[in-house]
Write a structure and sequence with these properties.
The structure holds two protein chains of two kinds. By secondary structure, chain A is an all-alpha fold. The longest helix of chain A has 46 residues, at 2-47. In chain A, helix 7 (136-169) runs antiparallel to helix 9. Chain A contains nine helices and no strands. Helices cover 83% and strands 0% of the residues of chain A. Chain B has helices spanning 49-56, 79-86, 104-114, 119-132, 148-160, 178-195, 206-212, 230-235, 240-249, 256-265, 282-291, 322-335, and strands at residues 2-13, 23-34, 38-42, 64-69, 72-73, 89-92, 166-170, 198-203, 215-220, 223-229, 269-276, 295-306, 309-319, 337-340. In chain B, the strands form three sheets. In chain B, strands 6-7-8-3-9-10 form a six-stranded mixed sheet, with helices on both faces. Chain B has a four-stranded antiparallel sheet with strand order 2-1-4-5, covered by helices on one side. Chain B has twelve helices and 14 strands. Chain B is an alpha/beta fold. In chain B, helix 3 packs across helix 4 (119-132). Chain B folds into two domains: 2-249, 3-Layer(aba) Sandwich (Rossmann fold), CATH 3.40.50; 256-340, ACT domain (Alpha-Beta Plaits). The chains are: A mainly alpha, B alpha/beta. Chain A binds chain B through residues 122, 124-125, 127-135, 138, 142-143, 146-147, 149, 220, 222, and chain B through 57, 59, 80, 83-87, 89, 91, 93, 95, 97-102, 110-111, 113-115, 142, 144, 158, 162, 168.
């Protein structure tokens, strides 16, 4: 028992450092993937048939793109985007390449999530805004996004947790982070203490994120 | 002065299936709506009335025909000009369509933001309108905290914020209970009287028409089958559809079991006499019947108020010598409209 306590105490600085790296990777991927996903999701929503900027061609191109890449298992996806990562961030391995890969995968995933939440906006309020003379851009800014804000916050919370999951796989292209640390030093070196310590931290991080997301969404939804 | 003129307006939707027939929602409709009218458009669901009202503010483009508002054909305006035009036309909806993300006051401010008003002016104007609809104390509440009737009043305040000359009401009372319906109709009447706003009311409820519409058009399968002054359509409907709608409000005709029961109780021929505020009074009619020497009983009927004017339907059972009855009825027929109740 005492051995385990000492081991954890010794592991602590590394665990915290790796937690920091994981959160940094997730934060960057959320920033890039979150914005790209919001734009793609919005485009899907407004260009679809009956949307406020109906554009069948744009809709089908984005829809096919999202449908093609979203279902690819992330462990394969991150390996497959390596050449693209070399072009864009200059390297196919390490944390930069990981952030790039997660951002791309997240943007497809978030695009669908955003689209679904926007679909739930009452078409009646959009019609009311049109009847008051509002143009499409104003309707997006002042009606669609504010009306969907609560569900969007919950959706993004869900997405952040998926990003934590993705970040653990990033080790295969040489990315760091808590998930990879648990795999490399816990699982592969048959050291359950490392695995369980990492798992414990990840569970806490996820709980905190989910609680914050719920709190924000409740504020917005006033319930 | 003519305010809104529709000429041969048609709205077609492409067929739902490839090779199917196009759906004609509005079929060569022509209407003339005067400044200050409360113009009712009534029809069953699917008659095309909701589509028709959306053509007036160009939420839907017309397929053919012209729609003139203040002399300008709005069907040929650019998208930007149409948006500008819409700021001069308020609209209220069956489901109110308030923005849940905004307080009541900021809902009312929305059209003013679109029209480019500044913050302070916007707020003052919104509060002024909330005062007008009697909800000044709810300014900082959110729509979901309000009852249906209150939400519709906010909808009306919002629709009036930018000083529109026209208000379109799309089934504005259909989601409300009878008492709240009265409140909202009273408010619409006040909007028409005090602000001089021309109102187009879409409804499937004839009592809404009876209460506030000065003129009415009856729609069926995309066409206007009958139109005119509300009182005239009520007292003298020409089409079966109009007659059915009138009967939903004017319930003074015996039908079915009720009629059979009355016939069992009373002998003689049954006639229904229509009293309008222009024809003879009940007293004159009864006196004429008595003079003719026939025996009569009042068996059914009542008096309604349509647009504040009297409209009565009384059914009488008349007994006596056949020729005298005929004579009596022809005398009465010269005074008022009389119809024999079909046996």
């Amino acid at each position: 028992m005492n051995d385990i306590t000492t081991q954890i105490a010794e592991l602590m600085p590394t665990l915290l450092e790796q937690t920091g790296i994981m959160m940094w990777i997730v934060a960057l991927a959320l920033f890039f993937g979150g914005i790209a996903g919001l734009i793609l999701g919005l485009l899907l929503y407004v260009t679809r048939k009956g949307g406020i900027l109906q554009q069948p061609v744009v809709f089908w191109v984005i829809s096919i793109l999202v449908n093609t890449f979203r279902p690819v298992p992330f462990i394969i996806f991150i390996a497959a985007v390596q050449p693209l990562a070399r072009v864009v961030v200059g390297t196919g391995i390490g944390s930069d390449a990981v952030v790039f890969g997660i951002s791309i995968a997240a943007s497809f995933f978030i695009a669908r999530l955003v689209e679904q939440n926007l679909m739930a906006v009452d078409p009646g309020v959009i019609e009311a805004a049109r009847a008051m003379g509002a143009g499409p851009w104003r309707i997006i800014r002042t009606v669609i996004l504010p009306e969907a804000l609560g569900p969007l916050l919950l959706g993004y919370t869900f997405a952040i947790i998926a990003l934590v999951d993705m970040s653990a796989v990033a080790g295969i292209i040489g990315g760091e982070g808590l998930g990879n640390y648990a795999v490399a030093y816990g699982y592969r070196q048959f050291d359950p203490v490392v695995t369980w310590a990492a798992l414990f931290i990840i569970v806490i991080v996820v709980q905190v994120i989910q609680a914050l997301g719920n709190l924000l969404a409740r504020r917005v939804l006033r319930r | 002065m003519l305010h809104i003129i529709l000429k041969d307006v048609t709205k077609e939707y492409p067929p739902a299936k490839r090779g199917g027939n196009p759906v004609i929602a509005v079929d060569s409709v022509s209407l003339e709506i005067e400044q200050g009218d409360v113009y009712g458009i009534i029809g069953y669901s699917g008659a095309g009335k909701s589509t028709l009202v959306r053509l007036i503010n160009a939420l839907e483009p017309a397929s053919s025909g012209s729609i003139e508002i203040d002399g300008v054909d709005i069907t040929s305006l650019s998208a930007g000009k149409q948006r500008q035009m819409r700021t001069g036309i308020g609209m209220i909806f069956q489901r109110f369509n308030l923005l849940g993300s905004r307080s009541v006051r900021r809902n009312v401010e929305y059209p003013l933001e679109v029209a480019g008003w500044k913050g302070k002016d916007r707020k003052d104007r919104a509060l002024e309108l909330l005062e007008f609809v009697g909800l000044a104390d709810k300014a900082d509440n959110f729509p979901e905290q309000l009852s249906g009737g209150q939400q519709q009043r906010v909808g009306i305040a919002r629709a009036l914020a930018a000083n529109p000359a026209i208000l379109l009401a799309d089934e504005a009372t259909s989601a409300l209970d009878p008492e709240t319906t009265d409140e909202v109709l009273d408010l619409l009447g006040k909007v028409n009287r005090e602000l001089g706003v021309t109102i187009v009311v879409i409804t499937h409820e004839m009592d809404v028409i009876a209460r506030i519409a000065t003129k009415v058009a009856v729609m069926e399968r995309g066409r206007v089958v009958e139109s005119g002054e509300t009182y005239n359509v009520f007292t003298n409907p020409q089409t079966p559809t109009a007659r059915r709608f009138v009967r939903t409000v004017v319930r003074n005709l015996p039908t079915g079991d009720e009629l059979a029961e009355l016939r069992a109780q009373h002998q003689g021929r049954f006639f229904t006499i229509s009293f309008t505020d222009e024809g003879a009074t009940e007293a004159r009619v009864f006196a004429a019947l008595a003079r003719a020497g026939v025996d009569f009983n009042l068996v059914h009927g009542g008096v309604d108020s349509i647009q504040g004017r009297v409209y009565g339907l009384l059914t009488i059972a008349v007994r006596g010598d056949a020729s005298r009855v005929r004579e009596a009825l022809s005398t009465v027929g010269s005074l008022v409209k009389v119809e024999e109740v079909s046996p």
